[in-house]
Amino acid sequence: MEFKVEAHRIMTISLGKIYSSRVQRGGIKLHKNLLVSLVLRSARQVYLSEQEELYLQQQQQLLLAQREQSPETWSDRTECEPPTEQSPSWAEMESNISKEQAPSWTEMGRTDSKEQPASWTEVESSGYKEQAPSWTEMARTDSKEPASSWTEMESNNPEQQAASWTEGQRTDCQEQPLSRVHSEERTDRQSPKGLEEGRATREPRAPCRAVAGCPGRLVRRTAREQETACTRKRRSPEQGAAAEPASPLKRARTEPVVLQANSQSEEEQMETSSNVSSLINIFGSSFSGLLTKEESEGESGQICCDQVLGSMGSWSRAIVAF
Amino acid sequence: MHLVQCESIETNSQGAGGCGNDIQWCFTQVKGTTDLDVSEVHCGSACRLILLSMGEDIDTRKINNSFLRDQNYVTEGEALPQLPGDDQTGGGLPDIRIFTTFEERALEVMGEVEDRAIINAEVSTGRKADIISTVEFNHTGELLATGDKGGRVVIFQREQETKSQPHHQGEYNVYSTFQSHEPEFDYLKSLEIEEKINKIRWLPQQNAAHFLLSTNDKTIKLWKVSERDKRPEGYNLKDEEGRMKDLSTVTVLQVPVLKPMDLMVEVTPRKIFANAHTYHINSISVNSDCETYMSADDLRINLWHLGITDRSFNIVDIKPVDMEELTEVITAAEFHPHHCNLLVYSSSKGTLRLCDMRAAALCDKHSKLFEEPEDPSNRFFFSEITSSVSDVKFSHSGRYMMTRDYLTVKVWDLNMETKPIETYQIHDYLQSKLCSLYENDCIFDKFECAWNGSDSVIMTGAYNNFFRMFDRNTKRDVTLEASRENSKPRAVLKPRKVCTGGKRRKDEISVDSLDFNKKILHMAWHPTENIIAVAATNNLYIFQDKVNSEMH
């Protein structure tokens, strides 16, 4: 159990490092980020293995109850896929920015979202009924824990994303408008959400089956709001420092997009996967947003984090095998 | 002969593992004030301390092409402390702070009975831009170059030994200071390029001038360092101040003659090698053919000709087609000291690849792969980080090479790829602290390592301003500290020990009280003599072993 806490903590720290490396002077250091992503992967593996043991213990008890809900889970998954597909195209739009040096996590996000359906498909084919119960069960029984960890991760991520969006804004001002608008339209069709717009409009698309969902979301929203304030404050000095006249408007536009992707991935996770997976999903989708800034044209600088997230699919298979 | 042991007896066993009770202390002269803590162990004579101030004109950060020798400019920031017993003051400018010299004969290191005089030269400034980022001796050891985070390079020159004071071996004084790199902004990628000097490499001297290569993350520059001690006088058309003469006053034609002048050191940029690296340059290495050199970034290694700046050849490229599959990066690279076709590069996975440029134009395929299979029991969160090689250095003989990863130094024989022939634990007590070191980013510190001239001793840095030396022959090792306390008169460079067990002895330091902000990352060893230059954040310590020449 200690390993789990430790692993989680390490993952949090790793994400913080990756975020802060974006804003540091001199550009992103490929080597350090590679190492951090390796640590993240190791920590996640340990974390997942701990989770896996936990699930197996509780799996038998709630098997029946979960079976009823598994069809719903499946439908939710299909619902989720379109939005995740959105981020790849969005990433492609952004790809005309040449930043070959910076590792671009866009592909990672892309791969990640592809992996998600892939793993789910696999889950189905090999017996999703077993797996879904355990995941959902986990969501139920560990409601407090995932919620809190989500909160923690959420509080990290929006800040990271928003701030990094700001960072990105500062640097690639001109090319944003077109692509942003485009993606904005598309995401707006989904559940609109924006920091400035407040929390009220945020609608969980998935049914709020998981007990953990509502309290978790509430906590998260609060955390987000707090983070918004912090982010706003942080943004203003950055605004001042920005070379280009990056408008708050643009920032407002981008944030909903990022957070949208976030919320979607969250919702998916709440239904189906452990909080770690959600963390990674958030990680993935947020990075898809973050890194579109820095992807060079044609050359996607990637980190093995893609593999990290890809390996998550293999974990799903491992879990299914049980 | 009575040897004064004083309370040094209990400290005899300091120095992790090896020095043991064989240490014998020699008592010799002491120069300077004697108000130091007597309880400190010293077998010292005097401690010669040279403090130089490394600074610059307050209002300039531009390239200065010429300097009057020994002229020092003071930086803004904290004033340097005046040590008691100053018997030398810098002349001329009021800002100069050249401090007293103490000569110190310290304890033996390496278990041999030696007469050692440790000369500490300390350069202290106190600004973040003054953090030293590289240290390098030239091929004769006469010049010592340091680069810092602010893009400046300071060159020290060793004073010639004077016959009147044969025991005062040459000390290093400032020879020249110049701004090598400036911060830049890459508009295309919207990235700021740091001006921090990553590496300095001297070229072998071929004429009166000295040449060195300095690099930041993206650009390599070739600098020419030359002296001027004569100037022509007696022009016909210009007078002494350079004003044009009134032609009517010119009655006789004269031939200008060269008259001696105050020595002036000029540093001029001769070549700028830019725009060849997408990622951050981490190493440069001059080939033994003295015509080419290579520069290595995270994923590529380029070969340059020293005279051609608009072209470079890519000889190693480990960038995967799909960056998703990136698993390792290049962390250091070096040419073989004698074979101009061989180069080695290390990776973040802990592997070394020896490449032969004769085999193919692109040396992606290694000729030899040096890798030690990982012990599966060591798998933990941070095993990948700690196995990442931070520095690789060929021995002077060319037979061996040494790699430094986070916790160990390994010596490899070029003929054996399966495992290193020697592994030295630097600070194994940090194994349990890896998580907190990861949090404060210390685990990413890149320590360098150095061979001595005869390849018998290796040296590397650690935390708390400790640095460690390992004698490969006697298998002894010692931990020393570069600190101001040891730089005071009669301060002795005594072996330090980190206490790993429960019971802490008097002079030991516990692992928890190590200062991880004080780290020795960069260092250099004189090519032939036992003089080492150790950079501790923004201070440069020069330690010298005053051993009789027959010892070596």
Observed structural traits:
heterodimer, A: 322 residues, mainly alpha, globular, disordered C terminus, B: 552 residues, mainly beta, five-stranded antiparallel sheet, four-stranded antiparallel sheet, 36 strands, disordered N terminus
Structure summary:
The complex is a heterodimer of chains A (322) and B (552). Chain A contains 10 helices and no strands. Chain A is mostly helical.
Can you describe this structure?
The complex is a heterodimer of chains A (322) and B (552). Chain A has 322 residues and is mainly alpha-helical. Chain A has helices at 2-23, 30-59, 63-94, 106-141, 144-171, 176-189, 213-241, 248-272, 275-292, 305-321. Residues 75-322 of chain A have low confidence and may be disordered. Chain B is an all-beta fold and 552 residues long. Chain B contains two helices and 36 strands. A five-stranded antiparallel β-sheet of chain B has the order 2-15-14-13-12, with no helix packed on it. Chain B has a four-stranded antiparallel β-sheet with strand order 6-7-8-9, with no helix packed on it. In chain B, a hairpin with a 2-residue loop joins strand 35 and strand 36. Classes of the chains: A mainly alpha (322), B mainly beta (552).
SSE blueprint and pairings:
The complex is a heterodimer of chains A (322) and B (552).
Chain A: H1 2-23, H2 30-59, H3 63-94, H4 106-141, H5 144-171, H6 176-189, H7 213-241, H8 248-272, H9 275-292, H10 305-321
Chain B: E1 48-52, E2 66-68, E3 105-106, E4 116-117, E5 119-123, E6 132-137, E7 143-148, E8 152-158, E9 172-179, E10 184-186, E11 191-193, E12 199-202, E13 210-215, E14 220-233, E15 257-273, E16 283-286, E17 292-296, E18 300-305, E19 313-317, E20 330-335, E21 342-347, E22 352-356, E23 368-370, H1 383-386, E24 391-394, E25 400-404, E26 408-413, E27 422-425, H2 434-439, E28 449-451, E29 457-461, E30 466-471, E31 477-481, E32 498-499, E33 509-510, E34 522-525, E35 531-536, E36 539-544
Parallel strand pairs in B: 1-5, 32-33
Antiparallel strand pairs in B: 2-15, 3-4, 6-7, 7-8, 8-9, 10-11, 12-13, 13-14, 14-15, 16-17, 17-18, 18-19, 20-21, 21-22, 22-23, 24-25, 25-26, 26-27, 28-29, 29-30, 30-31, 34-35, 35-36
